[in-house]
């Protein structure tokens, strides 16, 4: 069934049906939890993850605006619990190195890639 909100995601079809394909890490944590990994550009993965999570994706924001930081897929403007679209500004997924205090990395399940 289609998602009805960013928090009502469709059932998972990965190797591990008990684990979501993608999650949003809590803000200001530049890593992914066990069983998940970060990713950058490649095969439209960030756009796919954003769609899965019900978040707008803007490819025009792709870049390395904070050299030295990892370039990853992340979502901006998330609340303190990692929920998108709960603050005054819209949450937007993008690939960039400029992921600051109100951003959370989008993490991909290791089960998808057989990691």
Question: Could you report the average pLDDT, rounded to the nearest whole number?
Answer: 83
Proportion in β-strands: 15-25%
Annotation, overall tally of beta strands: 6
Instruction: Give the overall shape, derived from the CA principal axes.
Output: globular
Rg for CA atoms: 13 Å
Structural class: alpha+beta
Q: Give the ordered list of helices and strands.
A: EEHEEEEH
Distance between the ends: 27 Å
Give the helix tally: 2
Helix content: 10-25%
**Major beta-sheet overview:** 6 strands, mixed
- Uncertain residue segments: 1-14
Oligomeric status: single chain
Secondary structure layout:
Blueprint: E1 22-24, E2 36-37, H1 45-53, E3 56-57, E4 72-75, E5 92-96, E6 104-109, H2 110-113
Parallel strand pairs: 3-5
Antiparallel strand pairs: 1-6, 2-6, 4-5, 4-6
Structural notes for this entry:
This protein is α+β, with helices and mostly antiparallel strands and 115 residues long. 11% of the residues lie in helices and 19% in strands. The protein has helices at 45-53, 110-113; strands spanning 22-24, 36-37, 56-57, 72-75, 92-96, 104-109. Strands 1, 2, 3, 4, 5 and 6 form a 6-stranded mixed beta sheet that branches. It starts with 21 loop residues before the first strand and ends with a helix. Mean pLDDT is 83; it is low at 1-14.
Short description:
Helix content is 11%, strand content 19%. It is of the alpha+beta class.
């Amino acid at each position: 069934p289609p998602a009805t909100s960013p928090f009502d995601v469709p059932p998972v079809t990965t190797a591990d049906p008990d684990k979501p394909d993608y999650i949003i890490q809590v803000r200001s944590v530049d890593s992914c939890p066990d069983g998940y990994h970060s990713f950058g550009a490649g095969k439209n993965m960030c756009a796919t993850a954003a769609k899965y999570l019900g978040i707008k994706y803007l490819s025009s924001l792709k870049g390395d605006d904070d050299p030295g930081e990892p370039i990853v897929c992340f979502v901006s403007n998330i609340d303190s619990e990692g929920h998108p679209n709960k603050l005054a500004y819209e949450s937007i997924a993008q690939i960039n190195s400029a992921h600051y205090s109100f951003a959370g990395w989008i993490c991909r399940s290791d089960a998808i890639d057989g990691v």
